[in-house]
Write a structure and sequence with these properties.
Blueprint (H helix, E strand, L loop, with lengths): L1 E5 L2 E4 L4 E8 L8 E6 L5 E7 L5 E4 L7 E6 L4 E6 L8 E10 L4 E4 L5 E6 L1
Parallel strand pairs: 2-11
Antiparallel strand pairs: 1-3, 3-8, 4-5, 4-9, 5-6, 7-8, 9-10, 9-11
Amino acid sequence: VQLVETGGGSVRTGGSLRLSCTASGDNLEYYAVGWFRQAPGKGREGLACLNNLGATAFLAASVEGRFTVSRDNSKNSVYLQMDNLNTDDPAVYYCATCWAGIKEYEYDDWGQGTQVTVSP
């Protein structure tokens, strides 16, 4: 499956963005899918993972209450609604297939990513 993320941009603190991810090459309903991010100089941070029916398997504490992840299998797409963005959130955001690893959720098949910038 190939994934393409869109919707990144620059907002002020407290603003919102909605990221979209569209799949091709396979039917996304066969996969658990989610989002992770990577900021410059930092490691990958897993944000969310949805099972193939849309139930949330994992949502990071750092974004709980601010970010909402959803999917629409009929559109072969997954979304990340980001509200109340703050200066800890700037990063490249990736959607990916996901699964529960031994210690944390693992990700694969990610796209090129979309940049999110938050200014004070």
